[in-house]
Amino acid sequence: MVSPYISRVEIENFRNFKSIDVRLGHKQVIVGENNVGKTNFLRAIQLILDPSFSDTDRKLSKSDFHDSIENPLESGEVIKIAIELKGYEKILQLVANLRDAVISDDPPTLRLVYVFQPILDENKEIIRYDYLIYQGNNPENSFTHQNRSLLNIKVIRALRDVERELKSLKKSPIFQLVNQFEIPKSELEDIAIELKKAADTVMDLDEIKIVQSLLVNKFQTVV
Q1: 95 near 58, Cβ under 8 Å?
Q2: What is the predicted pLDDT for the residue at 162?
Q3: Percent of the chain, pLDDT > 90?
Q4: CA separation (Å) from 31 to 4, 202, 208?
Q5: Is the pLDDT score of 1 beyond 60?
Q6: C-alpha to C-alpha distance for 131 and 58, rounded to whole angstroms
Q7: If we measure between CA atoms, which residue out of 197, 187, 155 comes closest to residue 174?
Q8: How far apart are CA 37 and CA 165, in angstroms?
Q9: What is the per-residue burial (b if ≥16 Cβ within 10 Å, else e) of 66-94?
């Protein structure tokens, strides 16, 4: 694969993640029950990469620290998020503009780091908190909006009711994404067929059949 992808995510003290280190492949699917941290995991990545975030969006607060930490702003605790990217070496713009982010040449790897940390006065007293995003392992190498625009990340908000949202084309995030890339109708039809096949395959999994049976039995019991 020659397109850039996130190969590693490290999170410390952010929301429900005390300390995690996740290795990723070129294509990933995040699966989990409600309130286990899927959105928080994506939010951590967005703090670094999402070009639609403002400075205010990237600045965290006391509530963003892990619940196990008491009085984080008074004790000088730090939230740290680091992501690594691979598969970028064929894109000359990335090679030229993100050379400060390189931490390995074999395989070629970029590292971007977000830190929400205390700002100290001359007496080492905390005066406020602010965030910093930098390239590689050197906080002096800032990761700027211009750098971020080269990575072209697209985040689609969660679909709670897919059928309803697709009918409302102006508000549908999937429609907006498809429309942006101007995919021919014939290709969309082929994609729809493949998606239907994939959905049918998923429904044939033994685990899905077991869950379906359990739900049916539960409803019958309730009735």
Answers
A1: no
A2: 66
A3: 66
A4: 22, 14, 14
A5: no
A6: 7
A7: 155
A8: 24
A9: beeeeebeeeebebbbbbbbbbbbebeeb
